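Posted in: Structural Biology > Protein-Ligand Complexes

Title: Requesting predicted complex, arginine in pocket

I'd be grateful if someone could produce the 3D structure tokens for the following input. Sequence and ligand are given below.
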Amino acid sequence: MKTVLEEISVYLGDAFAAAGYDAALGKVSVSNRPDLCEFQCNGAMAGAKQYKKAPAVIANEVVAALPADNVFSKVEVVMPGFINLNVTAEYLCDYAKRMAAEKKYGCEPADPKKTVVLDYGGANVAKCLHIGHMRPAVIGEALKRLNIFFDNKVIGDAHLGDWGMPMGLVIEQIHDEFPDLCYFDPDYNGPYPEEVPFCVKDLEVYYPTASARSKEDEAFRERAHAATFRLQNGDPAYCALWKKLIDMSIADLKVGYANLNVSFDLWYGESNSQPYIEPMIADMKAKGLPYESEGALVMDVKEESDTKEIPPILLTKSDGAFLYATTDLATLAQREHDYHPDHIIYVVDKRQDMHFTQVFRCARKSGIIPETTKLTFIGNGTMNGADGKPFKTRTGGVMRLEQLVSEIREEVISKMKENHPDEPVDESVAEKIGIAALKYGDLSNQASKDYVFDIQRFSSFDGNTGPYILYTIVRIKSILQKYFDSADASDKTKVTAADRACDLLPPTDASERQLYLMLTRYNEFMQSAYEDLAPHRVCSFIFEVANRFNKFYHETHILNNEDAAVKRSYIAFILLAKEILEQAIWTLGFDAPERM
Ligand code: ARG
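-- Reply #1 --
Done. Output follows.
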């Protein structure tokens, strides 16, 4: 289904053509002066130069050529040549009826369907999820859902950090904690045990301990280095121990991500790209691309048009060890091999911008992925504290994601108690509201911008917040519930907006009309959020709908309206609003409770 703007642009385009001008000039946009009109067309201004005529002359000719259809309630030429437009209530109602009949309320699936790989986890084995992992997870999950919503085939990959020096560090720390473990006995050849004497919480201590040690203790650093090398070269004992770390970490990370309503199709790590590294480097060498520099293998990726220095990409270190860039390149080879994706999207902290510039250029130059595969890096900004610096715990440490989720839940619980002192708090409801607070607070900001995490504001039931959006949906649900409780048997069975679309009447009041005007822009907003990978547009849409709904609700007798047909129309209308809001928040990765 075309968007409202596209539909009315067709009328204007036809009129431009009928008056002898280019139909493309008939593009209509939403008015930037809502006090004067709802839509506007500036084509006559653009055409003035081309046709060497005063814009007002063109505009008047175009307006005269508009068919006397039931679409526009106002068509006005304003100097120097703008065409101001309002649409009729009948048109809005008809459009809403057509939306209600469709499962996606007018959003058209991508054509052709694309295969999209999304890399948005980036958590590291043997380390806990901390708040730095939140933004990529939340934004990535929303982008995954937007792509699913538009019918693309999407593969979400966690791309765990599981292959570098941190692994060697943890292994050597375990060595020192449990020197008698069979993994460290040179005479032991397996089988390796099911059980290990440490748990995931221990790993989170081992890594920072080992990392600190390696900075002071040269010998320990050497050991960790050697351990990394042994692991990467397939030593059976070290691989068996490492596999334990991986399984333990993944089980724990799955819980952590699930607490945010985030999931992945693939739990691959950097290590999964290992088989692709040798052939990839060999191929690059055959093409004469890399060269040696101070013992390391590097490749130039700078371009004529660069305005800043883009250093060569490091492929292997002088000791033959692979680097972050090596595994990212080999992962591209793997993804191409497994999925032939049309598009690969990374959501990673924007401070990794240079790394991805180098990786993408190198992948293109060396033909690891075909020209037709689009590569996108979405560098997310930082979540800051009130001081404008990256958010920290009260004691100044890095906050665990778990703790953040629980703090916001506690805040929500205290607000719920304030609102309803006499009612027990439903924990599952508090959890839903907490997730909405966190995710909406994040997603309503442009991904690349830093923002300040303000727990009071994010968890407020008023303003541009997740809880406010949920509150609005719950409000609609409760009106509908009341209606259904009193409805007669045949009416009770019509539970969807599609069932009731025929009841919709053209809007008569201003607040109803304003809600109509926004709801009917659903496909326009969703399309643009999807195309520009910009979930914050979905937030803008739902916030505007919620505001307009609440105004309509306060000004309108819905359930106690004396006119039965009008009442049925309102029910159909708010049911449509509810379904659209619920679908939109699904793409953002949270959902609404039944009551709150
Ligand atoms: N594990 C990395 C880190 O902690 C992030 C990985 C992001 N994804 C990627 N394909 N490089 O910085």
